[in-house]
């Protein structure tokens, strides 16, 4: 069984979206959240922060979310943590691609700040309970 979800490394280049999500995840969800505004910052922070989960925006300059996830996978001790993509690009083919990259789920933007923590918990529980990345679909 996977450990309890407590710490989330969130990579989001839009400061307004990052602030809303961080506030919602910390205040409503009770998580400890470290926000990085680009992929390289996430790669530097991941080893010392030791997140339980990666929450990744898909569309970012320099390194997009899938590229960040691929690079995170190479970091010893934390690279195999579960990942969730957060994006407006939620067409079935795109969602399938994110899952093929190893994401346990996708949360669509815009997201509901009052529900996003529960959406993350649901995806975490489904992945941990053996349902795997193929179950559950997009969390609206």
Model description:
This protein is α/β, with parallel strands linked by helices. The protein has a single domain (7-139), classed as Response regulator (Rossmann fold, 3-Layer(aba) Sandwich). The chain contains 5 helices and 6 strands; from the N terminus they run βαβαβαβαβαβ. It has helices at 15-28, 39-49, 65-72, 92-100, 116-128, and strands at residues 7-11, 32-36, 53-57, 83-87, 105-108, 138-139. It has a 6-stranded parallel β-sheet, with helices on both faces. Helix 5 links the parallel strand 5 and strand 6 (138-139). Helix 2 (39-49) packs parallel to helix 3. The protein is globular and about 35 Å long. Mean pLDDT is 90; it is low at 130-137. InterPro entries: Bact_response_regulator (IPR050595), CheY-like_superfamily (IPR011006), Sig_transdc_resp-reg_receiver (IPR001789). Keywords: Phosphoprotein, Transcription, Transcription regulation.
């Amino acid at each position: 069984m996977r450990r309890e979800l407590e710490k989330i490394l969130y990579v989001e280049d839009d400061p307004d979206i990052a602030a809303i999500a961080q506030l919602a995840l910390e205040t409503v969800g009770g998580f400890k959240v470290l926000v990085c505004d680009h992929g390289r910052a996430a790669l530097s922070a991941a080893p010392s922060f030791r997140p339980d989960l990666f929450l990744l925006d898909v569309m970012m300059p320099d390194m997009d979310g899938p590229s960040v996830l691929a690079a995170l996978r190479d970091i010893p001790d934390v690279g195999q943590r579960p990942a969730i993509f957060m994006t407006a690009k939620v067409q079935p083919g795109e969602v399938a691609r994110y899952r093929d990259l190893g994401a346990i789920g996708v949360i669509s933007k815009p997201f509901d700040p009052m529900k996003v923590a529960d959406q993350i918990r649901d995806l975490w529980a489904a992945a941990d309970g053996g349902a795997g990345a193929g179950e559950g679909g997009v969390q609206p």
